[in-house]
Amino acid sequence: MDDLPPTQAPLVPAYPPAQAGATPLAAPSIAQPDASTVEPSLPPPGPCAACGVLLQGVYCHACGQKAMESAHFSVHHLVGEFLKEATSFDGKLWSTARLMVTRPGQLVVDYLQGRGRLYVSHVKLYLTATAIYFLLFPYAILDIPDLEQFAQLIQHPTLEPFLAKMRVDMASGAFYSSYQNWYTLLLACTVVLSALVLKLGFRHRLLGEHLVFALNELTFVFLMVLPLAVIRPFTKGWQEVGALVTLVLILAWGIYVALSIRRVYRPSRRKLVLFMLGYLVFRQVLDSSLALAAIVLAVA
What we know:
The chain is an all-alpha fold. It has a domain at about 120-300. The chain has ten helices and no strands. The protein has helices at about 75-100, 105-110, 120-135, 145-155, 160-170, 175-200, 205-225, 225-230, 240-265, 270-300. Helix 7 (about 205-225) runs antiparallel to helix 9 and helix 9 (about 240-265) packs across helix 10. It is globular and about 75 Å long. Residues about 35-40 have low confidence and may be disordered.
């Protein structure tokens, strides 16, 4: 039998033996940080104010709450945080809105597949679009129903007080702002109705998925007020041009919805055409009913 190779000793650096009477080497000293040079954003160890877990850094590893100190409430810090959040939100907002407009339905697909953190949430985007809608609605060439024609259609002795009040509100200008508020509120309620109609057409998907799709569609409708507000100053006095632009935008909405449905639900061409015909009729009846209800609520 061959002899086994000798076991190698571990490689340990050899130090010369200490001479008698020599002073032992002291361990290297670690400089302690001065209290004035400690990063002010690092809080002292302690429990999280939100969940009580012991902090291990600026942010709680359990709930994500940021540890706050008195320095965080200074005017300089608050202004900096505001600018940081505003800039971050705006950048994310514009990228989200660009994706929603240029690739119909892709935002819904990404959200349903778990990539929602890449964009602004549907609720934030909807609230932003609603704010834009409220600001620009008076400058858009949206057709408010012909109220005089409406008054003639419902001529009845019992409705005379209602019609008189409507004319007074129209003359004072208070009617239009009230009409806008009610119409926008009622339009927001149509998200559930649209989701139910989508559920009838695509039963294999969950109702929550249809709600996300309907909210995305309504957000696009609110954002359509932007080109309307831009075009109106150049079409003042040209009612035909305004009506043509409105018709083009309605067609654009129909194409957008069709492309979104195709990307999200992937139906056959035949099913897509049949569903879009029914959905357009549903939206037309619903929008006319909303306009009528908004008129009644604005005058009441």
